[in-house]
UniProtKB/TrEMBL annotation:
UniProt-annotated stretches for the region Disordered: 251-273
UniProt protein name: Glycosyltransferase family 2 protein
Record-stated family: Belongs to the glycosyltransferase 2 family.
Residues of the Glycosyltransferase 2-like domain: 35-162
Gene3D superfamilies the record matches: Spore Coat Polysaccharide Biosynthesis Protein SpsA, Chain A
Record InterPro entries: Glyco_trans_2-like, Glycosyltransferase_2, Nucleotide-diphossugar_trans
Annotated organism of origin: Streptomyces albidochromogenes
Residue ranges, compositional bias (Low complexity): 264-273
Amino acid sequence: MSSFLRPAIEGQDQRASESQYRFVSSHLAIAPPVSVVIPAMNEAENLPYVFKTLPAWIHEVILVDGNSTDDTVRVARDLWPGIKVVKQRGRGKGDALISGFAACTGDIIVMVDADGSADGHEIVSYVSALVSGADFAKGSRFANGGGTDDMTPVRKLGNRVLCAVVNAKFGARYTDLCYGYNAFWRHCLDKIDLDCTGFEVETLMNIRVVKAGLRVQEIPSHEYVRIHGMSNLSAVRDGLRVLRVILKEQGKRRTGRRRPPAFAPGAARGEVS
C-alpha cells in the first residue's frame, strides 16, 4: 500500500494524526494536502452546486475571480468559510488557472470548473491515482466509465480529431483532450511552465506533461450540463486556438527526459484575500 494512502486504524487517537493525515472516511486517510482551484466569472448561481460536492477533507479551496459583476465572491465565502480568493488581473481561463496555481499551498492541485459540470465526489479518484504513482491525473469523458451530457456532435468530432493529432505527434494515448478536470502534484508546474492565457491551456498542459516524461493516468469522469448561464466556448474559434498550440508545441524541444509511456486510460474509476 502506498505510504501516502493508508487505512485508518480503528481505535487510533485521531487527534494525534490529524496534523499529518486527512480522514476521507473511517477506513481511509491521506497525507498530502489537496488544493482545489476554481476559476470563476459570474458563476454565483452555479457555485452552490459545485461546493456541495467538494469533499470536506480538502486542504484549501482557491477561487480565482475574473472580475465578476454578480455575487460570485460573496457566495463562495458563504459556502466555504476560509476560502482563498484570488483577483484575476489578466483575462482568459489560462491566466486564471496560472494565478490560482501560484496561490496554492497543497502538494496536490485539482482543477475544477465553476459551472456545475464537474462532480467533486470524483476528486478522491484523482488523488488516489496520484498517491499511487501518477504525476498527472487527467480526467476523460471518453475513458471506460466516463461520459458527457454537454457536448455537441461538432465539438465531440473536433475533440476526437485534435486528440488523435496530439497522440500521433507526441506519442500520447489520450482518449480525451479538451477537458478541464485534472489533478497533479504541484512540482509538475516547474516542468510544464504554463504560458498560455486562454481556453487552450488544457491542451497545452496535456502536451507538456507528455513532453516532460511525466506519468499520466486517465480518470473516467462524467461531465454534466452547465446549470445556469451560457458557455463562452466556440467550437470553431477555440478549436483553431487548440490547433495552433499543437503546431507550436511540435516545433519545441522536449522539456525533460522522455520515459516509456506510462498511461493507464480509465484505470482508476494575482491578489489574494
